[in-house]
């Protein structure tokens, strides 16, 4: 019996611990990355092939021309652009990226939207693409914006049996102002926005975000020469109205706002350029009893568009 007790009570001494390796091995490693990012997976090979084909394929040209592609760089800007529905063709993700909630949200948004390719790239390649900017492992490629032609805006309105309501921007260089104008045009039933080709804001990711989705349904046209585009509008029976601090009329006194009209808004500092101002049929001012000298383009356009919509109603 004693022998049996000795055999059963024999205990080994203290054992060396695993240092937490076993416990860490049982911990979760986060969500499984999308198939497009898993090397060796069929979807990864397909996505990489499509990405290379997209990079080689030239963008189609419209009557109004096209802008160049744009890169949104950094985790917060990329996530914000995806949240706002900014069009995108490719999300570049750095290999062996330090995964956090912003990276996971970006991948989730890309998966939900569809049509955006995922491509892993080594850090040196992303550094080269972004000219050394702090991309934080995420780079979103925005496709070239397909601009309409100024004449298309008026033609679409007439085809719909409506009087054209168009806003033209003269010397406005802040994309956020352009986005705000696009949003106001959409809100008040306008038919589009015209911008010059040179020295003017274009439809960048910033403009898309400020438009709050309105850029998807409100066309933006680009004019090689804004003065000639306005003269063509006049020949088509459209009244050209320029906003100016020294305008002869107040907007509330201009009956023409109830008919076919193109409203021209200048920059906050310089206002309308000389040639554009001379092309306008009327120069009107916005009454500001508070004493402000000027309004930014987005606010000024919204005020006049409201008056035009009120008269049309």
UniProtKB/TrEMBL annotation:
Organism domain of life: Bacteria
KW Methyltransferase (keyword) present: yes
SMART domains named among the record's database cross-references: SpoU_sub_bind (SM00967)
Start and end residues of each stretch annotated as Disordered: 1-72
GO MF term (any one): RNA binding
GO cellular component: cytosol
InterPro entries cross-referenced by the UniProt entry: Alpha/beta_knot_MTases (IPR029028), Ribosomal_eL30-like_sf (IPR029064), rRNA_MeTrfase_TrmH (IPR004441), SpoU_MeTrfase (IPR001537), SpoU_subst-bd (IPR013123), tRNA_m1G_MTases_N (IPR029026)
Comp. bias (Basic residues): 53-64
Alphabetical list of CDD domains matching this protein: SpoU-like_RlmB (cd18103)
Record domain RNA 2-O ribose methyltransferase substrate binding: where: 71-148
Biological process according to GO: methylation; RNA processing
Keywords noted in UniProt: Methyltransferase, Transferase
Pfam family, any one: SpoU_sub_bind
Family stated for the protein in its record: Belongs to the class IV-like SAM-binding methyltransferase superfamily. RNA methyltransferase TrmH family.
Descriptive protein name: 23S rRNA (Guanosine(2251)-2'-O)-methyltransferase RlmB
